[in-house]
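Order emerges. For instance:

***
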Amino acid sequence: MRNKEVVIGGLPVEISRKSNQKNIYIRVKPPEGNVTVSAPARVPDREIERFVLKKMPEIMKARDKVLARERQNSREYISGETQYLWGRPYPLQVVYGGTRGNVIRTPEKIVMTVPEGTETEAREALLNEWYRGELKQALEGAVLRCENRTGLHAEEYRIKNMKTRWGTCNIQKRRIWINLQLAKKPVECLDYVVIHELVHLLEKNHTRRFYALVEGFCPAWREAEGLLKEAFPDKSPGER
């Protein structure tokens, strides 16, 4: 059966039907917050409409998050933008002057000083290097906490700016990569990702045993993963 688009509560909704499906599912898709509904083949249109209207507050909240994420991704690194460090928002202040770039954090804001005429890409690179330093410093404590908690040990930890993963684990080399963007999330998220990747040293795949081990080492992992999925809605920390 072909997909069709209808308007429910003033919102365009794409409806698809599947003969082997038992329940109605709603999804808000990035980057534009499009709403899709997947429903069993025999469910009447009116029932789908009632279901969507009932869920409208949750749908609008999810759309707001998706659209806010998209605005966050479209950055120019200019004064007035919001940057995050360990889950706390800071306004960015860009000061032009001097011959070298520098970034500092005050109690109220993040101040970036760059030479006059510095391009957007260079401002982004400078800020990312500052985040790298912040993450590297915090990672030392996180590794100590998490390795003591799990009894597991990786030979090496590295930082990389990744688009779709919060962390990866090379099991053979016992090397763990941590996403640079974790410096923007609460530190509890960093601990969770480190534990998640360490557990891969015991269990390669995301099996029931894997998540049972993660649960034992990090009982609040679901809350941390929820925060991470706000940025990568379709990925888990170590998804391959």
User: Anything to note?
Assistant: The longest helix spans residues 120-150. The mean pLDDT is 90. The first strand starts at residue 4 and ends at 8.
